[in-house]
Design a protein that fits this description.
15 helices; 33% helix; single chain; 396 residues; alpha+beta; 3-stranded antiparallel β-sheet; globular
């Protein structure tokens, strides 16, 4: 049986599975390959632990303390390896310098996205960058609890629902725990992403070694990625991966067609943030007349607790405070959840009945005009694009 009869609200955070003393909770795949927890009734001891740590129904409320900032990392190398302004790297650097540990999502060699723990600065690049796939928290909630009981300073980053799940799992407040949630549009499933990657490999006879959803090598901090792979001779190569090149990134992800069902009613798609910090892109930064150098990226940073406000000046960031209304003006996910696309039932059927190659072929056939326009925008030089964005956002 499932823990939650209605899957509409299950976020898949993993708190229940990690908390179960009988280890009788496993996962089954539902629509679009999303995982949902199930209980083995023969092993269940009816302790109620799974229900007590489930964050579903937990009241989401605006924090008593909330300030917004534009933020840019001091270190150019860290900034260039980050999706936007490099806030995560600054937080991680602060914690690791105090002999603490950091948890975040990492793309594994098998192209699965999983939460991992690092305790050395040399490992930071494993956690940088956006992964537009739902991460598996594995047993990291339990690991965090052990680290906190050992007196370590801990930073845990993830989607708001993962942060909420961690806090409900812990069941108490720890002064040595820092949390940072993301401005999240919604998450596609690992199974869906895996099918997409396998399709790319089969079509081109390559082995994908990494997929960077956002890379600054080509078009700054825009929606431009990078595909890394081994060709048929085993030679390592990389190439730009524009968002309009594939059904996964453009046609389905950005159009809100393949998110987890709970994402469309997310209680955290607002200023009701569970993390001490909230990290996101400061879309529209070009039109704000900031005193910061935003050429290589700019983050939106929300400081949601007194604890976070004390730490902020100690981070290696250049910051500029913003009115809250400007901070959320171009971030819809701080105003309301993503709206479910009308074609989502068709996407479910397509995923179940078609190969990745068939899905890609259909995407190209049905979106010729949109793909042409997207590629034309992509061809605009970065310097000209930044000028146009500045004009556009000032008008808005």
């Amino acid at each position: 049986m499932t823990i939650i009869g209605d899957r509409e609200y299950c976020t898949g955070c993993g708190a229940c599975a990690q908390a179960c003393p009988a280890q009788c909770i496993s996962w089954v795949h539902g629509e679009l390959g999303f995982r949902y927890p199930t209980i083995d009734p023969e092993r269940c001891i009816s302790c109620g632990k799974c229900e007590s740590v489930c964050p579903i129904g937990m009241q989401a409320k605006k924090p008593d303390y909330c300030k917004a900032y534009a933020a840019v990392n001091h270190e150019k190398n860290l900034l260039m390896n980050s999706t936007s302004g490099g806030v995560f790297a600054a937080l991680a650097e602060y914690v690791l310098a105090k002999n603490g540990v950091v948890y975040g999502s990492m793309m594994q060699p098998d192209m699965t996205v999983q939460h991992v723990r690092i305790d050395r600065w040399e490992q930071i690049d494993r956690l940088q960058g956006s992964k537009y796939v739902q991460s598996d928290t594995n047993n990291t909630f339990s690991m965090v609890e052990e680290d906190l009981k050992a007196g370590l300073l801990v930073l845990y980053t993830g989607t708001p629902c993962q942060i909420a799940g961690l806090k409900k799992f812990l069941g108490k407040t720890y002064s040595s725990l820092l949390t940072a949630d993301l401005v999240c549009h919604g998450v596609p499933s690992q199974a869906y992403f895996t099918k997409f990657i396998k399709g790319v490999e089969e079509e081109r006879n390559i082995t994908v070694t990494d997929f960077l959803f956002r890379s600054k090598k080509n078009k700054g901090w825009a929606l431009s990625g990078e595909l890394q792979y081994l060709d048929s001779s085993g030679q390592s190569k990389s190439e730009p991966a524009h968002y309009s090149d594939s059904y996964y990134y453009y046609y389905y992800y950005l159009r809100t067609s393949i998110y987890r069902e709970s994402c469309y009613s997310c209680p955290y798609a607002s200023l009701n943030r569970p993390g001490d910090f909230t990290m996101g892109d400061l879309w529209g930064a070009e039109g704000l007349g900031l005193k910061l150098n935003i050429k290589n990226g700019c983050s939106l940073l929300l400081v949601n607790s007194q604890k976070a406000s004390v730490i902020l000046p100690k981070l290696k960031l250049e910051v500029q405070e913003l009115p809250i209304n400007l901070a959320i003006a171009h971030n819809n996910q701080l105003q309301h959840p993503s709206v479910k696309s009308n074609d989502r039932p068709e996407r479910v059927r397509e995923y179940e009945e078609n190969t990745a190659a068939q899905m890609q072929k259909r995407f190209k056939a049905e979106n010729r005009k949109e793909i042409f326009i997207a590629k034309a925008k992509y061809a605009v030089p970065t310097w000209a694009r930044n000028i146009l964005l500045a004009v556009r956002y000032r008008i808005k």
